[in-house]
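Weekend entry, working from home. Most of the wet-lab plans are on hold until the incubator is repaired, so I used the time to fold the two sequences that have been sitting in the queue since the last round of cloning. Logging both here for the record. First:
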Amino acid sequence: MAEGQQRVEFKRKLVVDENNVDKIKRLGVPFAFSGRIVEAYYNNAELDSVEIIWSDGKKNRSYHMAVDENDDQFQALLSEYSYESLDEATRMRNEAGRQVFRDAFHRYAMQNNMFSSGELPQSPEEFQGSLDLLFEFDPENDEQKEALFKFKLKIFEQEKVKNSKSKVNKSAIRKALTPLEAVAAFAKFK
């Protein structure tokens, strides 16, 4: 130290930034989410990223991390949440998302009179078959290709498609290789 300068020591204080609450640690606990996990699941198809929902006691918060066996944070997660638990939570969350989509599609189909009679198919098996066509379409199956063709025709019968001047949107319906692509193309019509 130079002559005339005094040594000043600073004590570290915990500063809480409301925008960065997930960085707050409790004394003796290695990470903010430790001991407070509500749910954890993979948040991408590659299964190389995890989202942790944890509670600070007042509200739930989200924390994202990479799946890395050598990372201390990931090891802390695994000490509370197994790979099996991550898989199961991911599967349940994905199925819930698919069900939301199915329900939304069903409402949309009913509102736009896309069922042949304007009502639900007669049997639950027929209805399930419609969902199977959407979510498990096999381009090699002749019956399903025929059903896709009929579905596209039904879309072209809708007033907003008939009255549209958009060649691009109509072409997207024609080029759709799956029922979901056809629905996505139809959804672009206003």
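Second, folded right after the first finished:
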Amino acid sequence: MVLNYRMRFYIVLFFCAGCFFMGCSENNDYPDGLPMHQVAEILTDIHIVNGSLYNVSNQSDSVLKHGMGLYLEVFKIHHTDSATFRKSLQYYSTRPDLLDIIYTGVSTRLTKKLDSLKKVKAHLDAVKRKDPHFIADSIKAKKKADSIATVKAKHTADSIKTASKKNDEEAKRLKQFHNSIKFKNKNITPAQ
């Protein structure tokens, strides 16, 4: 009976120690995975694609049609595939400290892209305000729009005049026809 108790104690101790050592082991390598910086770049592009798909109509088939192609293009640009990315993301998801570092990089990249887009937009707005060609082009466009409106107004006036001339001619013909009938009626004497 004592031997049985000791044997149970050692078996339980062996399994507890084994679980402890397996749980505490640090696995730094990611088999066939992507490094953190590449995962951050891919996630940045994926978030940009998600934002662009927000503007596409909310029909599920159009999102599938446009979205899948865009996601596949992101993987193609980064020379990877969705399975490798998914495996790497699952690995980093089990390590919240590394995933936090990755998303800090994603946030930094998105902020830089947004800032550069704002700078480009501000530069274009400044060029539009200062560029004499742009102002001249807008004046030319205004003159062209005014000339088109003038031509349309003239065409409308001409068509009204033409219609009124046709109506006058038609009225003259009807009057002549009516007069000719009256004249014929004067020449006809009623039969008695």
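Plan for Monday: verify the second prediction. Residues 131-185 form one domain.
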